[in-house]
Structure formats: C-alpha cells, structure tokens
C-alpha cells in the first residue's frame, strides 16, 4: 500500500508541477497521509495558465512612470478575429519551428509587428500549447493555440485581438 501511495503521490505531483521525487518519497514513507498532502498542494501549472489568461485580458501593474505605456497595453479577448488559416505541425516541434509557421500564417504585414523576444509559449494544463504574440511595445495582438490529436500532430489556430 505504501508503494502505491508513493506512485500516486508522484503522479499527482507531476500533474501539479511540483517536485516529483520528494512527493514520491513522502507518499512512500507516510502512505495515505502523504497522498492526501500531495492532493492538497497548489497546482502550479494551473496558476501559471490562469496568470497568462489574466495578463492577456488585463494590463499588468506598472510603476507610475509607465502610466502612458499602460494605457497602450490594454487589450481584451472579447473582441477578436480568428484567422481562416491555421497550420499543422508535429507535437514535438520546437518553439522556433512553431514561431516560423506562426509568422508564415500572419503574413508579411502582421509578422513585421511580431516580436519573438516578448512573445511567450506555454503548455496548457488541458493539453496543447499556446503562444501570446506580442509587439515590441509589449502589446499582445494575437494568440496562437494548439490542439493535439493522437497521431503526433498539433493543429494550431491564430486569433487576432482587436481594440
């Protein structure tokens, strides 16, 4: 029973983005109590995903010196345009490969606005990945998101955010 509690604790820890080794050991040593403790730990992956969603919907907190740039960064997800084109790529594609495809789909005019160094990739807790496509001034102007199938292929869709 203590061995299985260690295994279950490790699986829960992996899914929550916390240290797998420590929680496997805790489940093995403390049994059901270690398992219950692992279940009670906060989900770091979900927190990060929720933070990304919040940052896309609301402006971040800036110092008073950044007040004018703060007004320029306000965006909402309620108004958007889904691009008709998307793309397929391997689930195991690197961020550079995915970024190249995103730029290709955006076209020359929109891709000139995209700043790779400010754009962020994130794994979604519900599966797939997401990339917030950001301008050089820090404004998120598009979101690329993927859904995966069982064939090692990720289907990406790009949504343009409008003011």
Characterize the biggest β-sheet.
Answer: 5 strands, antiparallel
Main sheet: strand order: 1-5-4-3-2
| Overall geometry | elongated
The number of distinct β-strands equals 5
Q: What is the helix tally?
A: 6
How many domains, in number, for the residues? 2
**Mean pLDDT over the full residue set:** 78
Question: Which percent range describes the beta-strand content?
Answer: 15-25%
In sequence order, what are the helices and strands, one letter per element? HHHHHEHEEEE
Helix content: 40-55%
Radius of gyration equals: 20 Å
Oligomer: single chain
Low-confidence spans: pLDDT under 50, at least 5 residues? 58-78
- Structural class call reads alpha+beta
What would you say this structure looks like, in words?
- 44% of the residues lie in helices and 24% in strands.
- The chain has 163 residues and is an alpha+beta fold.
- It folds into two domains: 2-42, no CATH class; 46-161, no CATH class.
- It has a five-stranded antiparallel β-sheet, with helices on both faces.
- A hairpin with a 5-residue loop joins strand 3 and strand 4.
- The longest helix has 17 residues, at 95-111.
- The radius of gyration is 20 Å and the shape is elongated.
Summarize this structure briefly.
By secondary structure, the protein is of the alpha+beta class.
Features:
single chain, 163 residues, alpha+beta, 2 domains, five-stranded antiparallel β-sheet, 6 helices, 24% strand
Can you lay out the helices and strands and say which pair or pack?
Elements: H1 2-16, H2 20-30, H3 32-40, H4 44-57, H5 67-72, E1 80-90, H6 95-111, E2 120-123, E3 129-134, E4 140-148, E5 153-161
Antiparallel strand pairs: 1-5, 2-3, 3-4, 4-5
